[in-house]
Amino acid sequence: MLFQKPVKILLSVLPCLFFLYVNAVMLFALLSKPLLLESPRYVLFGHLLLIDSLQLLVAIVLYILAMTMVRMMIFVCILITLLGRVTVKLSPLNLAVMSLERYVAICFPLRHANIVTTRMTGVAIALMWTVASSDLFMQLLLYISLESTGFTVLRICHKHVFQLQIYSTVNESITIACFVLVCMVSIYTYIAVMITVKSASSDRNSSKPQKTMLIHLIQLCLCLTSTLFSMINSVTPWKINPAIAVHLRYALFLCLIIFPKCLSPLIYGHRDHAFRPVFLYYFTFGLRTTVKTFPKS
Question: pLDDT tens-digit profile of 212-230?
């Protein structure tokens, strides 16, 4: 029992550090190949790596702060918590945009270069951050208006720093709305791509676009697990033995937060035949010297 807390922290931090390293290698591989950054597909993938890494980092920081009972100024805790909430919404939005990019590339190949440009990709990323941050200022205003605690007061930092029910209601409403919209977009693009591919060709390579869209759906399900954890943790009364409740929360934290965020970018990056050789080259410190060429779209 004496070493239970350190062991839990260690088991949570070590996988996170490894997968943060993997994500960092992926980002470095993208940045090291300028031609990759000319493709909106890989720009969006790089953005996904960044926000998934941020969410993973924030989740583990909040977990360590809660486990170690560290006291800090409230405004610092609020900034960390709000960053985590923004990244939770960003991941599915980014996947929706990636699905739309593949939808345009497959269903409208002649217009893809004109519609999906680097400039439009930047606009899409800016819109994603705007939508994901839509409730951020609202929650800050509510905190200033309703809370009597000052921003410089020392308090133990955890994800429930916004204690009033109205904060959870606003956050969960916007998060659910984002997921519903993203699910509709992902399902529509998958069906549209499946119909287009089947009607256009019977070649064995025609299954690749469908597999790509299916990967996006799998990634979306992995993103959904983080939302499920937040809702289960806030709604469930946990009317069981406190010790069992702590272990159950820890298991859910690992299964629904840590591992999905670790696996999501790795699945997509390892499956991509153009990006995989570049990633493996840097991940193995150059031991794999063969790096294949890759297309722009």
Answer: 667 767 767 776 666 666 6
**Whether 67 contacts 8, CB under 8 Å:** yes
Structure tokens at 294: 């890759």
Considering only CA atoms, which of 194, 193, 182 is closest in space to residue 222? Answer: 182
Query: How much is the pLDDT for 162?
Result: 63
d(CA 233, CA 253): 10
CA distances 153 to 78, 80, 280, Å, are 12, 16, 47
Considering the entire predicted model, what is its pTM? 0.80
Beta-strand ranges (E) seen in the chain are: 71-73, 154-156
State residue 217's pLDDT score.
72
Angle in degrees, CA 58, 265, 231, rounded to 5: 50
Q: From 22, 103, 87, 105, select the one nearest 227 (Cα to Cα).
A: 87
Are the C-beta atoms of 62 and 159 separated by less than 8 Å?
yes
Contacts of residue 14, defined as CB under 8 A and 6 or more positions apart, other chains included, come to: none
**Alpha-carbon distance 194 to 150, whole Å?**
55
User: How many residues would you count in the chain?
Assistant: 297
Residues 254-287: pLDDT tens digits? Answer: 777 677 776 767 776 677 777 888 888 888 877 7
**Radius of gyration (C-alpha) of the chain in whole angstroms:** 21
State the Cα–Cα distance between residues 211 and 63, nearest whole angstrom: 35
